Amino acid sequence: MTVAVFFGCSFIAFGPAFALFIFTIARDPLRVIILIAGAFFWLLSLLLSSLVWFIAMKASNDKDQQLQRGLLIFGVMFSVLLQEVFRFAYYKLLRKASEGLAALSEDERSPISVQQMAYVAGLGFGIMSGAFSMINILADSLGPGIVGIHGESQYYFLTSAFMTMAVTLLHTFWGVVFFDGCENRRWWVIAVVVALHLLVSGLTFLNPIYEGSLPPAYVILVSMAVWSFFSCGGSLQNIQQFLTCRKNDAGSEVAS
Amino acid sequence: MNTSDSEEELCNERTSLMTGSPPISSYHVETGLPSSMDTQTKRRRPVTNQSNNRETHHEGVSTERDSTADSEDEELSLKYGAKHVIMLFVPVTLCMIVVIATIKSVSFYTEKGGQLIYTPFTEDTTSVGQRLLNSVLNTLIMISVIVVMTIFLVVLYKYRCYKFIHGWLILSSLMLLFWFSFLYLGEVFKTYNVAMDYPTLALVIWNFGAVGMVCIHWKGPLQLQQAYLIVISALMALVFIKYLPEWSAWVILGAISVYDLIAVLCPKGPLRMLVETAQERNEPIFPALIYSSAMIWMVGMTEQSAVQQPSHQERNSDEEVGQSHHDNTEDNRNVVVPETEVHGTQSRTSSAEELEEERGIKLGLGDFIFYSVLVGKASATASGDWNTTLACFVAILIGLCLTLLLLAIFKKALPALPISITFGLVFYFSTDNLVRPFMDNLATHQFYI
């Protein structure tokens, strides 16, 4: 509950996303707009899912703790599904926009590729998701209080920060893979993304047994990173060339 | 607390604001070469319509371009389209950040300190119905005052009473730059318990105000002018946040977007008449009270001096009239104007040499103020705190984006308040009532969605 905790947790939670934003998105206005529109779409999905949860909650018995917990779990699952639906809707919108942009330019090329849009859209989703999860907690960490005074975990802020970072980056990678799956009509990819999202959210039901939720989330994060890297054209050769600073003529990186 | 004093000042301020510059709630596309614009429009219209009704971003359309556009120009215009949006995102974001930071740290602006004379009905009533009625009455009074002032202003403009208008603008910006910033500084010092002596304070305020007056009404570096405009809008928004009672504020925000829509789009609307009068006279629409995001530099004017004579004079008169008077809150509403391309397009078509040219976009300061009022009220009164503020922020930015897209499609005066304020209000109420309990419960159990 000190300034150190505040800064530490905010850097843990938002550091990677902020760095990605500064280095790859901030310079290009089109990407900034796609990012903010992605955040808006995530917000819409959250709105609808909380509406559903709210109705279910109000229609049920307030006092029954088990029921309320069950409803919350249902709310989480429904929200995950709705987020993926909105991700698909955003993909459709971006495809049409890309076609429009390509039609307007003389050489029939859109100024931004689908992979770039996928990355930016995923990051938009991730930033908004992370912000909504973490900002209130960060604001509370500045004020007075004792963590876990009723016997809960001491590491609430730290684990929240790590989980937020994982979720933000996961959304980015899911965005890349999802759009790639939609582009190439590989529906199993979409199913896997949805399943993984459900899995990660489901693992958080094990909190505060953090061993059950954080390490698996990070394992999934690393595997998603590898998968998205290969799905957008990366290869071991690319990495080799990057590490040895050799010129790369066939690479198709996501961020320019 | 000197409530009555500041209220009177505010009333004077608001009166002066009201009779100041005209409300300009419009996007206005100024084009220098009608012929080139037409050909361009004809050429691009089918493409534009087809592509734009699918996009949320407006990159597809550029407003002024050469009739001899090549592929690079096409790409450039697309980038310009997105660039214009970012040029507006940044100042709007900055203004909102200033307002939110102040609201969260300086408690003065969230304390009840009385009400303005324009909202005489109190909201401290016993029943909900009475409170609602009072807020609706407050709104009616406020909106009718605004309408009267707008019409008065349009009349003044029509009968060319420029001196009157300028005097009023100077008076109101004096008030804002000196008096309100003095109050603001005082409250900040109180919050952080900073000891300050009057001579230092006088020096600081004098410098701040004098440089502000020069920058805004005469000449100054563009970024300094923009910074002053943002600060001025934030100050005005803070005043509104403090002195408007809660329910009245929301109803007023809603009502003013409806008024904006009517005033700009209806054929007999005052703002539309203002825009058309300004267009007839070939004058820029009140450079005062407008945030301008870029300047036009001219290189190599001598060759085309004959052609550019009128535009050059216009530009001079621009500078004489002076830039931006922001105090007029309701009046200087949403003008988003792509910067006068008169010079730009002419020089581009006629000269072969490289011209340094930066096209910009203009937005009325009233827009800044009302966006910031919405976000500031959201952060001051919402129990969901930061989530609600963030949601309203994103909603307003998306609304601005959509409005600019519509501007690119329709290429005529459009109000900038309705879409953003509607989104902002919808997201405020839904986030505060629906999302907040959901996220709170999730955070309690540490579930992640």
TrEMBL record, chain A:
| Compartments reported by the entry | Membrane
Q: This protein's superkingdom?
A: Eukaryota
Q: Which Pfam families match?
A: Aph-1
Record-linked InterPro entries: Aph-1
The residue ranges crossing the membrane are 6-25, 32-55, 67-86, 117-135, 155-179, 186-210, 216-236
Give the bilayer topology: Multi-pass membrane protein
Q: Where are the annotated coiled coils located?
A: none
Keywords noted in UniProt: Membrane, Notch signaling pathway, Transmembrane, Transmembrane helix
The text of the family note is: Belongs to the APH-1 family.
Q: How does it assemble?
A: Component of the gamma-secretase complex.
Describe the function of this protein. Answer: Potential subunit of the gamma-secretase complex, an endoprotease complex that catalyzes the intramembrane cleavage of integral proteins such as Notch receptors.
Q: What is this protein called?
A: Gamma-secretase subunit APH-1
UniProtKB/TrEMBL annotation, chain B:
Please give the residue ranges the record annotates as the region Disordered: 1-72, 308-355
Top EC class for this record: hydrolase
Where do transmembrane segments lie in this chain?
Answer: 85-103, 136-157, 164-186, 198-218, 225-241, 247-266, 390-410, 416-435
Swiss-Prot/TrEMBL keywords: Endoplasmic reticulum, Golgi apparatus, Hydrolase, Membrane, Notch signaling pathway, Protease, Transmembrane, Transmembrane helix
Q: Where is the composition biased (Polar residues)?
A: 13-24, 343-352
Spell out the Basic and acidic residues composition-biased ranges.
54-68, 312-333
Q: Where is the composition biased (Acidic residues)?
A: 1-10
Topology relative to the membrane, per the entry? Multi-pass membrane protein
Checking Gene3D superfamilies in the record gives: Presenilin
Q: Name one Pfam family in it.
A: Presenilin
Q: How does it assemble?
A: Homodimer.
- Record's domain comment? The PAL motif is required for normal active site conformation.
Which protein are we looking at? Presenilin
Q: Which organism is it from?
A: Huso huso (Beluga)
